[in-house]
Amino acid sequence: MNWTLASYCLALSLFLSSMLSAQDKSSLKEINLSDTINGIYIPKDIKDCFSQLDVIYPDSLKNKARLMADYEFASGAHFGLGMWIRNNWGLWQGSRLKTYFARFGYTVPDATSSFILFAYHRYLNGKDLKGPKMRKKRKLNKRRLIKFIREIGALGEYG
User: How far is CA 153 from CA 28, 140, 149, 158, in A?
Assistant: First the structure.
């Protein structure tokens, strides 16, 4: 009798866990495709990140940021604007932005937000996103680097 009860419990727990994982996958897919999470717009690519940051980031701070070195801006904003990006743009949850950056090898939210900040600083200063400093910052393999350069190259001078 104990064996039957144990078998029943095991079968029930396997069934429930498969149901929960199916629900988790479904909600993750919804997050992945959604253009908003908790009422906040999620950018779809790097150009869209710049557009959103232009709206969010006050002009007075943009002017201060332009005067900093790119690494200084990116590291200084990591726990402020960078944390806001990670938490609100779904880099921890699997948003469409996380999926976009994962295609280029960025799967860690901290690294992704740092890259966004670094690239945004270059954008604010009118610097090329395809330059050698960006290639070094990305640390991507050659195939992913070529894919990323082609995609941002389609932006021309940032769209």
Answer: 30, 16, 6, 9
Going by C-alpha positions, the residue among 92, 104, 78, 7 that lies closest to residue 42 is 92
Give SS3 for 155.
Answer: coil
Does residue 152 register a pLDDT over 70?
no
- Asked whether 116 and 124 are in contact (CB, 8 A), the reply is no
Cα separation of the two ends of the chain = 70
Measured distance CA(129)–CA(62) in Å, rounded = 18
In this structure, what are the phi and psi dihedrals at residue 37, rounded to the nearest 5 degrees? -130, 125
pLDDT, tens digit (0-9, with 9 covering 90-100), for 95-151: 999 999 888 888 889 989 988 998 899 999 998 776 555 555 555 555 665 566 566
Q: What is the value of pTM for the model shown? A: 0.69
Token code pair at residue 135: 């290639």
| Strand boundaries in the chain, DSSP class E | 36-37, 40-41
The label of the residue with tokens 């932005």 reads 97
Count how many residues are written for the chain.
159
Tell me how far the alpha carbon of residue 141 is from its chain's centroid: 18
The tens digit of pLDDT for each residue in 56-82 reads 999 999 999 999 998 899 889 989 999
